[in-house]
Design a protein that fits this description.
Oligomer: single chain
Shape: elongated
CATH topology of one domain: Cathepsin B, Chain A
Number of helices: 4
Distance between the termini: 88 Å
CATH architecture of one domain: Alpha-Beta Complex
Radius of gyration: 42 Å
CATH class of one domain: Alpha Beta
Strand content: 35-45%
Helix content: under 10%
Number of strands: 59
Structural class: mainly beta
Largest sheet: 25 strands, parallel
Length: 706
């Protein structure tokens, strides 16, 4: 029988009693068996089934019920049984006393009341009619057109008949539904082998997940060198999917690992097989939770043990109390909510893994979580959360990972905490921080979508961010908080993502980062109005961002020595920015100063009240000049402003490239650009078209009016 669901059905129909019906030459045993089939022997409305074991080597299942029989005329019966050593189970499903089998003495009658075989004794061997109907396990294709059924004459059921593998029929009763001991934990496995009688299948357990060998194993009689020299499914090809009630043997055992072991006894090495898969199913707590072994298609070791295992050491949950200090020295499984209360500590040891399945680890205020070096938190399934209202210590090399469709969220909620994270891995993991001070260094964020911080000092340096945005918002009124993002690598392939979104920070320092492939590279809003300190965007490489390399709203600070290229717009200064846009006056090469170049639209776009108070030593170049004259390199959109006098916008000492045309590439709604003297790294001057309008000797300007 294959298919786990059938075995599971059997687990919910558990045997309470086993009955045997001995064969004898008298009709007593036969009548007892018939009464069981008819009404369980006690007048019930429904009857039972029984199993017999017959030998099939040399048997003759091709006897035919004679024509004229009142029942089953033309159907097949087993004319003779086989020789010992070839046992095979058949299930009795019914009987008929009147079906003709054989006119033994040739008198033209079919009787059960006289000696017809001439041995001088009357017993069931003289029965010429009557048979049990049995079901074979070889499928409905066997014995057409009877659909897998056949008749077994009564006359075979005498004691001492060597054609039977056992000298009785047996049956059982099951527990009533209200008394049924439901399985708590079961095992599902798929096994393929050329000779099933060479195999013994066992389950076992160990107390902890890091135990290599089980402390106990148990055989299942049905799979203990049984079934003859046949394949796992008898005459049919393919693997056998089976189910075993693990909890029946180990109901009260504390375990951390479950074992599935196949022992092969094949001294001649003539057979072979495979364990295709193995899983554990926990039926407790109102669900069927299945966990697969990560090894599949494992060859069965010849003449030895093949052992697979599943780690399943549950973290405390429901009403379980986490002790004052719970140290995890072996891998654990988190399925529910594990709560660490005030004064208690959960420690995850070096290189220990916690697998989460739609679960939470909640560290309450006053509690603590310590993740030692190289430990792993892996969300395997569902929505998983780590909520830190207390303290957390993270040693180097810790990994936070979500696999497949699972999600993992880490909430750092302790507003007084100082947390330092080094050399960590965050994969498909969102982090939300509200701590006073958070430092993350030499760590990687992969496919996390976002990292969010809402308050406090931030030091993010030497990290890599792949498909991960930084959302850094200071929701407090404390302008002394500072956000630092330094020497990080940020690469993105997701739509509408911003690499660094900075909001309401009084101080900030964004330096040495490489930013590629976002919607916006750096999006800074209402930041830089704090006390003296860093307020700088310096020496970043920002490219291939579809909207803007740097997008600033109401920002104060310095934008210096960045390399901004191949974006939609290079730099956008919006809504009352107070910015110095400067490069390196001592630069000898372009790479030594600020470059805003070769962006798809404007190199620099500025709205009212946001023109830089210092605009010098930049290389602002668009060599292909695609889009001119409607797409200037510098556009200052300052319409609607009433100035006390005709304004002048200073852009001298910048390098504009060889294709620069003052008439097309500098545009404003109102005012004059002062562009001379120009400057380029190393003292070179580009061969550009000078404006025909000048207002004084050696001073070139461009006047722009609505």
């Amino acid at each position: 029988m294959t298919d786990y669901s059938k075995y599971q059905s059997g687990m919910y129909n558990t045997i309470s009693n086993i009955y045997t019906f001995d064969f004898s030459t008298s009709a007593t045993g036969l009548n007892n068996l018939k009464h069981w089939i008819a009404d369980h022997g006690n007048g019930e409305a429904t009857g039972g089934l029984a199993v017999i074991g017959v030998n099939t080597a040399g048997w003759n299942p091709n006897g035919v019920v004679p024509n004229g029989s009142p029942y089953h005329s033309g159907e097949k019966f087993i004319a003779s049984l086989g020789t010992p050593g070839s046992g095979h189970a058949l299930t009795i499903v019914g009987y008929n006393d009147e079906v003709w089998i054989q006119d033994i003495n040739g008198d033209g009658q079919y009787t059960n009341d006289r000696d017809v075989n001439g041995d001088g004794i009357f017993n069931i061997r003289d029965f010429e009619k009557g048979a049990f109907k049995v079901a074979n396990s070889w499928g409905p294709e066997w014995n057409p057109p009877s659909g897998g059924y056949i008749l077994v004459p009564y006359k075979h059921f005498y004691s001492g008949n060597s054609g039977f593998a056992i000298s009785n029929a047996y049956s059982c009763e099951v527990f009533p539904n209200e008394e049924m001991p439901a399985p708590e934990i079961s095992v599902k496995a798929s096994v393929e082998h050329s000779e099933r009688e060479k195999l013994s299948i066992k389950v076992g357990y160990a107390a902890a997940a890091n135990n290599a060998e089980p402390v106990a194993t148990t055989n299942y009689n049905s799979f203990n060198f049984q079934g003859g020299p046949l394949k796992m499914r008898g005459v049919y090809d393919g693997p056998l999917e089976l189910g075993l009630n693990y909890g029946y043997f180990y109901e009260n055992s504390e375990f951390g690992k479950v074992f599935f072991r196949v022992n092969e006894n094949d001294n001649m090495s003539n057979s072979s097989g495979t364990i295709n898969y193995f899983s554990l199913i926990d039926h407790r707590w109102g669900e069927d939770f299945e966990l697969f072994c990560n090894q599949t298609n494992v060859p069965i070791i010849n003449n030895g043990n093949t052992t697979l295992s599943i780690e399943y050491h549950l973290l405390p949950h429901h009403d379980d109390i986490v002790p004052h200090v719970l140290y995890l020295g072996s891998n654990r499984v988190s399925r529910f909510t594990t709560t660490v209360n005030n004064g208690d500590t959960l420690k995850v040891g070096n290189s220990i893994r916690v697998d989460m399945y739609n679960s939470e680890i909640h560290i309450k205020s006053g509690g603590a979580l310590k993740l030692f070096s190289n430990s792993k938190i892996i969300a395997r399934r569902g929505q998983c959360k780590i909520i830190i209202d207390g303290d957390i210590t993270i040693y180097p090399g810790v990994q936070f990972i979500a696999e497949g469709d699972a999600s993992l969220e880490v909430f750092l909620n302790n507003s007084t905490a100082t947390i330092a994270i080094q050399n960590a891995t965050f994969q498909q993991c969102k982090v939300y921080s509200q701590v006073a001070s958070l430092s993350i260094s030499t760590s990687s964020f992969v496919n996390c979508k976002s990292f969010c911080s809402y308050v406090g000092d931030l030091d993010l340096f030497y990290n890599t961010y792949s498909n991960t945005s930084l959302y850094l918002e200071n929701k407090s009124k404390n302008l002394n908080f500072e956000a630092k993002v330094i020497n990080c690598s940020m690469v993105n392939t997701l739509p509408n993502a911003t690499s660094i979104k900075l909001i309401n920070y009084g101080k900030y320092f964004i330096s040495g980062n490489t930013i590629q492939g976002f919607y916006n590279g750096i999006d800074i809003f209402a930041s830089g109005s704090g006390p003296a300190g860093n307020k700088s965007i310096i020496q970043n490489i920002i490219h291939n961002c579809s909207w803007a390399g740097i997008l600033a709203y109401n920002m104060s600070g310095i934008i210096k020595n960045n390399n901004i290229f191949n974006n939609g717009v290079g730099l956008k200064l919006m809504n009352s920015c107070n910015v110095a846009l400067i490069g390196n006056p001592d630069a000898q090469t372009f790479s030594q100063t600020q470059q805003i170049r070769d962006n798809e639209s404007y190199e620099v776009y500025i709205t009212q009240f946001s023109f830089p108070y210092l605009f010098q030593y930049n290389t602002i170049i668009d060599e292909d000049n695609i889009g001119n004259p409607t797409d200037p390199m510098l556009l200052f959109s300052n319409e609607g402003i009433i100035y006390p006098q005709f304004p002048k916008w200073y852009v001298e000492n910048n390098c504009w490239g060889s294709n620069f045309d003052y008439d097309d590439d500098l545009r404003a709604s109102y005012g004059t650009f002062k562009v001379y003297p120009t400057w380029c790294p190393g003292g070179t001057q580009p061969d550009s078209k000078l404006s025909t309008l000048h207002t004084g000797a050696g001073c070139y300007e461009r006047t722009l009016n609505n």
